[in-house]
């Protein structure tokens, strides 16, 4: 692996000091107690089944001016920017493909995660997220409309506090519609973290860490699902961890509801986007008209001057 | 799958057959094709297995190596999966052609083995925080005839079951470094506990129905398949006396993923997950039986010692 020689790397076998802090040596019980208070609320005041989207959904389109379409989503401390570029012909392609391709790339900012700094070359997490994103978006895009072309979708995760894959999918859905890429439906995604009988909807990083740990053979894991809500189709479903069938089916119904809950927010952003662009167009037209009038007035003046001459 | 051409009428034939629970090779929707399994086929590997499921041919070798455990998991070993799609399987795999498929499968295996309930990495620990075993599971795809995920997971489990890890005879502490002396005798080794290792079951959605173990032709008729990873039952992998000591086992899902460009309705997903768990249970029992029989044959073979030290 190429090393970054511009900064001090430390000896090869050095470990992060965090490992020796109290936070790291906490056992399962302490960890759980810290995340859930005595009233059954989570750290940060949310209910167990309350997604961050409901308390503060900070999303917008048109973030990045050089991209065809772009969006930004902020779920408290998870912040994701997405840009989508025009379809372009696939270079070095051996055979003609009747369906258009999506090229997805997910990148963490070097400062986005706790602990280690992310390197510039894509690591396995980022590659897995890119594959997951591609799988989730493919059924939503009308790919037959641009054969032999590919659309580039870039996700940049500025800050990661859990649920970055659903945030990335939601952002990509917004950016694709901002770029006016034909789609079958809005795409929304949500995730849950499960640990024993506790189900955290829209988990934070700590909650995800807790859910990945095994404790006494109880159900644990993280599930992410993306949906096309109007068409009632699941476009991607991925699970990590270990849980029994009832738990999976329960989580599935929760996720289905959550995915539908996000729809009005996405719709609001899209409508706002349409209104904005409409207004902007109107403004531009008015300005153009004014300019033309001014020009015409000047023409009149010149004509009269010429006539006098 | 790669390089297979089917006419629309052939596809319709397959589709209509599946609607009536009757597939082109005579199976019903929930039947597997016959498979052949051999273990201990590669002499230089610690454990190996070869699985042939109709036309799908998989060779798995497990190599062990001593490594330093991750700082945040000092008492756990490591396991890594590498998939290599041989160009023998189809010319499309030549060069970097099979890379995407290989990555997909190795990611899926990694996720399926991620949970401690699926595979306990603590058994690979040698010296907490200092040394552990690292298992390199190399999966070679020699021929593809559909249903790669299932075949790979079966072969991997068989190879791990067959894996022998040498005992540590002595450990010397020299400063902060540990110096291990391993036993030279290949029979003086321990076996891994792989009873809970997950099996993957692919459910291929064709028309309105889901089928298990799709052939390459059937795979090309489908736009979406669901892969369910289900943890195994340790009772199937040990002798009867040991089995009675174990707790009652509940199969759990250790991973679920979707393959292919399509999407499914939530109801179909629910049904498929249930169907997958059921299929995995039978598959696991059959694999356990076959592996125990194979091990029995090997243990009947007694080690002979020669020379005057006898």
Automatic annotation (TrEMBL), chain A:
<dbReference type="GO" id="GO:0016075">
    <property type="term" value="P:rRNA catabolic process"/>
</dbReference>
<keyword id="KW-0271">Exosome</keyword>
<feature type="coiled-coil region">
    <location>
        <begin position="271"/>
        <end position="301"/>
    </location>
</feature>
<dbReference type="GO" id="GO:0005730">
    <property type="term" value="C:nucleolus"/>
</dbReference>
<keyword id="KW-0539">Nucleus</keyword>
<keyword id="KW-0694">RNA-binding</keyword>
<keyword id="KW-0963">Cytoplasm</keyword>
<dbReference type="GO" id="GO:0071051">
    <property type="term" value="P:poly(A)-dependent snoRNA 3'-end processing"/>
</dbReference>
<dbReference type="Pfam" id="PF01138">
    <property type="entry name" value="RNase_PH"/>
</dbReference>
<dbReference type="GO" id="GO:0006364">
    <property type="term" value="P:rRNA processing"/>
</dbReference>
<protein>
    <submittedName>
        <fullName>(African queen) hypothetical protein</fullName>
    </submittedName>
</protein>
<dbReference type="InterPro" id="IPR036345">
    <property type="entry name" value="ExoRNase_PH_dom2_sf"/>
</dbReference>
<dbReference type="GO" id="GO:0003723">
    <property type="term" value="F:RNA binding"/>
</dbReference>
<dbReference type="GO" id="GO:0071028">
    <property type="term" value="P:nuclear mRNA surveillance"/>
</dbReference>
<dbReference type="InterPro" id="IPR027408">
    <property type="entry name" value="PNPase/RNase_PH_dom_sf"/>
</dbReference>
<keyword id="KW-0175">Coiled coil</keyword>
<dbReference type="InterPro" id="IPR001247">
    <property type="entry name" value="ExoRNase_PH_dom1"/>
</dbReference>
<keyword id="KW-0698">rRNA processing</keyword>
<feature type="domain" description="Exoribonuclease phosphorolytic">
    <location>
        <begin position="58"/>
        <end position="182"/>
    </location>
</feature>
<dbReference type="GO" id="GO:0000177">
    <property type="term" value="C:cytoplasmic exosome (RNase complex)"/>
</dbReference>
<dbReference type="InterPro" id="IPR050080">
    <property type="entry name" value="RNase_PH"/>
</dbReference>
<dbReference type="InterPro" id="IPR020568">
    <property type="entry name" value="Ribosomal_Su5_D2-typ_SF"/>
</dbReference>
TrEMBL record, chain B:
<dbReference type="GO" id="GO:0071035">
    <property type="term" value="P:nuclear polyadenylation-dependent rRNA catabolic process"/>
</dbReference>
<comment type="similarity">
    <text>Belongs to the RNase PH family.</text>
</comment>
<dbReference type="GO" id="GO:0071028">
    <property type="term" value="P:nuclear mRNA surveillance"/>
</dbReference>
<keyword id="KW-0271">Exosome</keyword>
<dbReference type="Pfam" id="PF01138">
    <property type="entry name" value="RNase_PH"/>
</dbReference>
<dbReference type="InterPro" id="IPR020568">
    <property type="entry name" value="Ribosomal_Su5_D2-typ_SF"/>
</dbReference>
<dbReference type="GO" id="GO:0005730">
    <property type="term" value="C:nucleolus"/>
</dbReference>
<dbReference type="GO" id="GO:0000177">
    <property type="term" value="C:cytoplasmic exosome (RNase complex)"/>
</dbReference>
<dbReference type="InterPro" id="IPR027408">
    <property type="entry name" value="PNPase/RNase_PH_dom_sf"/>
</dbReference>
<dbReference type="GO" id="GO:0035925">
    <property type="term" value="F:mRNA 3'-UTR AU-rich region binding"/>
</dbReference>
<protein>
    <recommendedName>
        <fullName>Ribosomal RNA-processing protein 42</fullName>
    </recommendedName>
</protein>
<dbReference type="InterPro" id="IPR015847">
    <property type="entry name" value="ExoRNase_PH_dom2"/>
</dbReference>
<feature type="domain" description="Exoribonuclease phosphorolytic">
    <location>
        <begin position="32"/>
        <end position="166"/>
    </location>
</feature>
<dbReference type="Pfam" id="PF03725">
    <property type="entry name" value="RNase_PH_C"/>
</dbReference>
<dbReference type="GO" id="GO:0034473">
    <property type="term" value="P:U1 snRNA 3'-end processing"/>
</dbReference>
<feature type="domain" description="Exoribonuclease phosphorolytic">
    <location>
        <begin position="198"/>
        <end position="253"/>
    </location>
</feature>
<dbReference type="InterPro" id="IPR036345">
    <property type="entry name" value="ExoRNase_PH_dom2_sf"/>
</dbReference>
<dbReference type="GO" id="GO:0034475">
    <property type="term" value="P:U4 snRNA 3'-end processing"/>
</dbReference>
<dbReference type="GO" id="GO:0000176">
    <property type="term" value="C:nuclear exosome (RNase complex)"/>
</dbReference>
<dbReference type="GO" id="GO:0000467">
    <property type="term" value="P:exonucleolytic trimming to generate mature 3'-end of 5.8S rRNA from tricistronic rRNA transcript (SSU-rRNA, 5.8S rRNA, LSU-rRNA)"/>
</dbReference>
<dbReference type="InterPro" id="IPR050590">
    <property type="entry name" value="Exosome_comp_Rrp42_subfam"/>
</dbReference>
<dbReference type="GO" id="GO:0034476">
    <property type="term" value="P:U5 snRNA 3'-end processing"/>
</dbReference>
């Amino acid at each position: 692996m190429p090393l970054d020689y511009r900064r001090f790397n430390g000896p090869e076998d050095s470990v992060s000091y965090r490992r020796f802090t109290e936070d790291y040596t906490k056992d399962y019980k302490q960890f759980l107690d810290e995340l859930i208070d005595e009233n059954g609320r989570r750290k940060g005041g949310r209910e167990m089944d309350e997604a961050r989207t409901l308390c503060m959904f900070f999303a917008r389109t048109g973030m990045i001016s050089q991209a065809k379409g772009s969006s930004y989503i902020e779920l408290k401390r998870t912040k994701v920017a997405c840009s989508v570029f025009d379809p372009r012909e696939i270079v070095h392609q051996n055979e003609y493909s009747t369906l258009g391709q999506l090229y997805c790339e997910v990148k963490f900012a070097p400062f986005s995660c706790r602990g280690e700094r992310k390197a510039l070359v894509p690591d396995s997490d980022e590659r897995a997220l890119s594959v997951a994103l591609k799988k989730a978006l493919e059924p939503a895009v009308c790919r037959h409309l641009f054969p032999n072309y590919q659309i580039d979708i870039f996700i940049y995760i500025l800050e990661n506090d859990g649920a970055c894959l659903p945030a990335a999918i939601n952002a990509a859905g917004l950016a694709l519609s901002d770029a006016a890429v034909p789609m079958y439906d809005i795409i929304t995604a949500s995730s849950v973290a499960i640990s024993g009988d506790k189900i955290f909807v829209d988990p934070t990083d700590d909650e995800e860490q807790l859910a990945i740990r095994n404790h006494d053979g109880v159900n644990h894991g993280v599930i992410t699902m993306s949906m096309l809500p109007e068409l009632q189709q699941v476009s991607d479903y991925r699970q990590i961890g270990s849980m029994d069938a009832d738990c999976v089916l329960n989580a599935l119904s929760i996720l289905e509801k959550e995915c539908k809950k996000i729809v009005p927010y996405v719709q609001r952003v899209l409508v706002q986007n349409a209104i904005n662009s409409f207004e902007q167009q109107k403004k531009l037209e008015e300005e153009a008209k004014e300019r033309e009038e001014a020009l015409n007035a000047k023409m009149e003046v010149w004509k009269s001057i010429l006539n006098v001459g | 799958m790669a390089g297979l051409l089917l006419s629309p009428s052939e596809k319709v034939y397959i589709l209509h057959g599946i609607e009536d629970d009757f597939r082109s090779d005579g199976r019903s929707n929930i039947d597997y094709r016959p498979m052949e399994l051999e273990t201990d086929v590669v002499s230089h590997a610690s454990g190996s297995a070869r699985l042939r499921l109709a036309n799908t041919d998989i060779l798995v070798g497990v190599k062990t190596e001593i490594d330093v455990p991750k700082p945040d998991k000092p008492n756990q070993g490591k396991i890594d999966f590498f998939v290599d799609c041989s160009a023998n399987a189809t010319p499309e795999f030549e060069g970097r052609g099979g890379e995407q498929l290989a990555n997909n499968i190795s990611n899926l295996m990694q996720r399926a083995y991620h949970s401690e309930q699926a595979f306990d990495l603590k058994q690979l620990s040698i010296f907490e925080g200092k040394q552990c075993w690292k298992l390199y599971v190399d999966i070679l795809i020699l021929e593809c005839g559909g249903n790669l995920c299932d075949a790979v997971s079966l072969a991997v489990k068989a190879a791990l079951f067959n894996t022998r890890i040498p005992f540590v005879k002595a450990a010397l502490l020299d400063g902060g470094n540990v110096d291990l002396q391993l036993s030279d005798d290949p029979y003086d080794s321990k076996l891994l506990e792989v009873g809970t290792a997950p099996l993957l079951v692919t459910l291929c959605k064709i028309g309105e129905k889901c089928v298990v173990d799709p052939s390459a032709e059937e795979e090309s008729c489908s736009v979406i398949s669901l892969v369910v990873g289900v943890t195994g039952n340790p009772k199937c992998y040990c002798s009867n006396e040991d089995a009675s000591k174990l707790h009652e086992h509940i199969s759990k899902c250790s991973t679920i993923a979707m393959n292919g460009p399509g999407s499914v309705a939530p109801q179909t997903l629910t049904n498929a997950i249930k169907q997958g768990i059921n299929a995995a249970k039978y598959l696991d029992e059959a694999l356990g039986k076959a592996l125990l029989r194979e091990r029995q044959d090997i243990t009947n073979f007694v080690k002979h010692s020669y020379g005057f030290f006898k």
